[in-house]
Structures are given as structure tokens and as C-alpha cells.
Amino acid sequence: MPDMDSTIIKNQKRNLTNMQEKFLDVLFGEARGDPRRAAELAGYSNNAYPKVVRNLKKEITELAENHLSTHSAKAANRLVELLDEDGTTPHASIRLAAANQILDRVGLAKKEKLDVNVKAVHGLFILPPKDAIRKVEPTDDDKENI
């Protein structure tokens, strides 16, 4: 069965080479996020991985988002588990920070409410009514200039 992440990339409009597809397949799998190792497993030469990463930047970013979304449930569970923590779990604060970062990056950040109260210290300024418009008849001098 093909990896779900690689299926998403293959269904896009952009045509990828077999080596590029292999690179994307192993990047978040066997290579565990190491682009140098992923390039090696895909068959690229030793120093080719920076160019491969540049060319596949959009696809790698999408895969990273999918990867974080996939693990967001685990991060949420870790936060709940830490509620019952008795203090014996090593590095609990590091795990808590990692879980928070994952949830922040997938859009489940804590909600912040901003209370905005504005007191107006000025009053309303009312202008006097305008004078009525007066109709002015042109004079003889005005008629000569027309």
C-alpha cells in the first residue's frame, strides 16, 4: 500500500521524476527527516541534496504539514497525560514543550482573548446650521464679461 503522503504529492499537477518521488517517500520515513540520507536512498549523488531540496521545497513543506497534522493527536494525548503526571516522568517539561509546538504549528494554539475598553474623553462637536443659499442676480458688469 503506498504511503498516504506520497500519494498526495503524486496526484498534484507537477510531474516528478522517479528519483524525486523516491526522495519524498523516504524523507519522512526511513530517512527520518534527514535530506542528505533521503537523497542517498533515492539514488542521488552525495552533494546533490541541497539542489533537490530547493527544487522540491513546496512538496516538502506540504509533507511536513501533513506529518505534523498526523502527529497532532499524539501531541494532544501527551498534554492530557501530563495532567496526571506525578513528577516521575523524566524530561516532562521537554515533552510538554514539544507537544505544544506541534499543536501550535497545526493551528491548535491556545486562544488569547483581548479585552478592549475605550473610554471617549471627548464630546460631540455640533456645528451651527449653514446660512440659507441666496440667489444673486448678475449685475450689468457681470453680463458684459460673459
Distance between the termini: 91 Å
Oligomerization status of the protein chains: single chain
Q: Tell me the radius of gyration.
A: 33 Å
- What is the number of E strands? 0
Structural class by sheet pairing and helices:
mainly alpha
Strand composition percent: under 5%
Which percent bin holds the helix content?
40-55%
Query: Average pLDDT across residues?
Result: 78
Give a verbal description of the structure.
The protein is mainly alpha-helical. Helix content is 54%, strand content 0%.
Give a quick summary of the entry.
Helix content is 54%, strand content 0%.
Please specify the SSE layout and strand pairing.
Blueprint: H1 4-10, H2 18-27, H3 35-42, H4 49-55, H5 57-83, H6 92-105, H7 140-145
Helix pairs in contact: 2-3, 3-4, 5-6
Question: What are the main properties of this structure?
Answer:
146 residues; mainly alpha; 7 helices; elongated
